[in-house]
């Protein structure tokens, strides 16, 4: 009887502790360098959560190995809700297809909270490149096999895979140049060190709007609402081409469900606020707002999808 009573009291205290969450600062790990879309979205969400939940949500950039280092750190963190990760299509989808020995399991090692936003990738070019449209690019690429270098934000990331998919489906030859994040890659496209790059639209949007970079096409099946003038790769003649990037908050597996639900509801509420909608629109992104279970199911479907893409396009595993 005493044991049962003690257990009941212990559970009550645990429930009260979770209800009071957060009681101290929370760290959101961004497994990529500052300046990219994952980082921008994480910082935007952290400001909203700091305001709504009354504790500081701190961003910690922990880049490396295509998102593996930061993701692994969170997978091994104490599952108490005080260490989270802003994962994405790369860290929790493509990596499982590309790496033979991934140091974490994208599905089993995490408690998905919510997908924050989705965005197309965009194919960008130096404004002085010898092609001004996607059609002109394809003509140039076919006439000059191997002469074009395309940059991406990391090895195995969705921008990299966007380029590899174009090589396969468009039957062109390009040289891949990987970078540690969007910032360095954009600098080299701007400077003309490489002719083209693939990036998440939000981190390139400002350069596109200012005219410092030329947008050749987006990778989604349909044109993006806030950038409707940019054609899709599919509509430009590359049949069956489609890549969509997503970004979401995850906690370590075993994090109490009430903590996960509280974070889900707080973020979902923030995503409905006018200033947040406006900011996402300006970045070329849009809110998703799903449940933890829907997010978990989606991660599983992404792992399956990209495993098939890697296999069907004979891309080498690492």
Strand content: 15-25%
Helix content: 40-55%
| Coarse structural class | alpha/beta
Mean pLDDT: 90
Largest sheet: 10 strands, mixed
General shape: globular
Q: How many separate helices?
A: 11
Q: Domain count, please report it.
A: 2
Radius of gyration: 21 Å
Q: Which CATH C-level class of the largest domain is it?
A: Alpha Beta
> Based on DSSP secondary structure assignment, what is the total number of beta strands?
10
Poorly predicted spans: 1-7, 9-17
CATH topology call of the largest domain? D-Maltodextrin-Binding Protein, domain 2
**N-C termini distance:** 56 Å
Superfamily (CATH H level) name of the largest domain:
Bordetella uptake gene, domain 1
Per CATH, which architecture of the largest domain?
3-Layer(aba) Sandwich
**H/E element sequence:** HEHEHEHEHEHEHEHEEHHEH
Keywords: Signal
Organism: Pollutimonas subterranea
Family: Belongs to the UPF0065 (bug) family.
Signal peptide: 1-19
Please give a handful of descriptors for the protein shown.
318 residues; alpha/beta; D-Maltodextrin-Binding Protein, domain 2; 2 domains; disordered N terminus; Bug_dom1; signal; BUG
Describe the protein in words.
There is one protein chain. This protein has 318 residues and is an alpha/beta fold. The chain folds into 2 domains: 25-119 and 245-312, Bordetella uptake gene, domain 1 (D-Maltodextrin-Binding Protein, domain 2), CATH 3.40.190; 120-227, Periplasmic binding protein-like II (D-Maltodextrin-Binding Protein, domain 2), CATH 3.40.190.10. It is built from 11 helices and 10 strands. Strands 1, 2, 3, 4, 5, 6, 7, 8, 9 and 10 form a 10-stranded mixed β-sheet that branches. β1 (26-30), α2 and β2 (57-61) form a beta-alpha-beta unit. α2 (37-53) packs across α9 and α4 (90-98) packs parallel to α11 (292-312). The radius of gyration is 21 Å and the shape is globular. The chain starts with a helix and ends in a 6-residue tail after the last helix. 44% of the residues are buried. Mean pLDDT is 90; it is low at 1-7 and 9-17.
């Amino acid at each position: 009887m005493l044991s049962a009573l003690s257990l009941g009291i212990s559970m009550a205290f645990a429930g009260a502790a979770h209800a009071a969450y957060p009681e101290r600062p929370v760290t959101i790990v961004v497994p990529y360098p500052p300046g990219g879309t994952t980082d921008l979205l994480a910082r935007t969400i952290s400001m909203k959560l700091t305001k709504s939940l009354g504790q500081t949500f701190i961003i910690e950039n922990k880049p490396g190995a295509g998102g593996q280092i930061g993701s692994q750190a969170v997978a091994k963190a104490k599952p108490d809700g005080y260490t989270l990760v802003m994962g994405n299509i790369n860290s929790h989808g493509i990596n499982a297809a590309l790496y033979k020995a991934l140091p974490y399991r994208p599905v089993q090692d995490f408690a998905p909270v919510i997908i924050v936003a989705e965005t197309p990738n965009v194919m960008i070019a130096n404004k002085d490149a010898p092609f001004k449209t996607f059609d002109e690019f394809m003509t140039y690429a076919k006439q000059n096999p191997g002469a074009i270098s395309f940059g991406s934000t990391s090895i195995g990331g969705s921008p990299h895979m966007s380029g590899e998919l174009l090589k396969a489906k468009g039957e062109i030859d390009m040289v891949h140049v990987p970078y540690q994040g969007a910032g360095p890659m954009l600098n080299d496209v701007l400077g003309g060190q490489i002719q083209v790059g693939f990036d998440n639209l939000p981190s390139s949007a400002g350069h596109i709007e200012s005219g410092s970079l030329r947008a050749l096409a987006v990778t989604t099946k349909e044109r993006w609402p806030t950038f409707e003038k940019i054609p899709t790769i599919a509509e430009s003649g590359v049949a069956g081409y489609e890549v969509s990037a997503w970004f979401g908050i995850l906690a370590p597996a075993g994090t109490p469900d009430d903590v996960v639900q509280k974070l889900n509801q707080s973020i979902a509420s923030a995503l409905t606020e006018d200033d947040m909608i406006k900011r996402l629109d300006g970045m070329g992104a849009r809110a998703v707002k799903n449940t933890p279970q829907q997010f978990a199911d989606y991660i599983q479907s992404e792992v399956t999808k990209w495993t098939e893409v890697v296999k069907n396009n004979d891309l080498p595993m690492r």
